[in-house]
Amino acid sequence: MRIIRLLILFVLLATLGSAQPAKPSFVEIQRSIVRYMECIECQSGELDTIIKKGDDALPYLEAILMRGPSGGRKEAYRQKLREDYAALEAYNKSNDKLKVLTPTQYESYYLSNFINTYRIRAAIAMHQSGAKERLDKISKDINTPAEVKYAIEEALR
To answer: What is the pLDDT of residue 25?
Structure first.
C-alpha cells in the first residue's frame, strides 16, 4: 500500500513539474501593455513584462502600431486634456503673460503626441520581442507620421 501511495505521489509530481505555464490572460496582457505605453520613466520593467508575454502580446502591439491606442484610452486622455486645459485657463486668468492655445489646438497637439507615443512604444516592444520581420512588414503597409516612421526605422537597425 505504501508503494502505491509513493507511486501515485511520484506520478502527480512528475505531471505538475512538466505542466506548461498558463498563457497570460487578455486582461493581464492589456494591463501590461497600458502600463508600458503610459509609463513616464519606465524604470519598473514595463517593457520587460511585455517581452516576457512573447507572441501572446504581438497581436495587441500590431493593432497599436497600426491604429494607436484604443478608442477608450483616447477618450480618457481627451478628458484629461480638457481638465488640464481648464486648469491652465484658470491659472492664465490670474497671469496674463501666458499665451494659451485654443482648446482645440491644445487637445490636437497633446492627443497627437499621446497616439504617437503609443505607436512608437509598440514598435520598440515588437522589436525587442524579436518580431522584426512583422514590424518591418507592418511599417511598410501603414500610413504613419514621420516621427513614428523614424522610430520604427531606428528599432529595425
So the answer is: 86
With respect to residue 130, please indicate whether it lies within any of the assigned structural domains. Answer: yes
Q: What is the structure's pLDDT at 144?
A: 75
Q: Taking a C-beta distance cutoff of 8 angstroms, is the pair 62, 134 a contact? A: yes
Specify if 18 maps to a domain: no
- Determine contact, residues 57/50, Cβ cutoff 8 Å: yes
At a CB cut-off of 8 Å and minimum separation 6, what does 150 contact?
Answer: none
Range of the domain at 116: 24-156
What secondary structure letter does DSSP report for 45? S
Q: Whole-angstrom Cα distance, residue 30 to residue 33?
A: 5
CA distance linking residue 99 with residue 96, whole number of Å: 8
The answer to whether the CB of 129 falls within 8 A of the CB of 51 is yes
Q: pTM score, two decimals?
A: 0.77
> How many separate domains does the chain show?
1
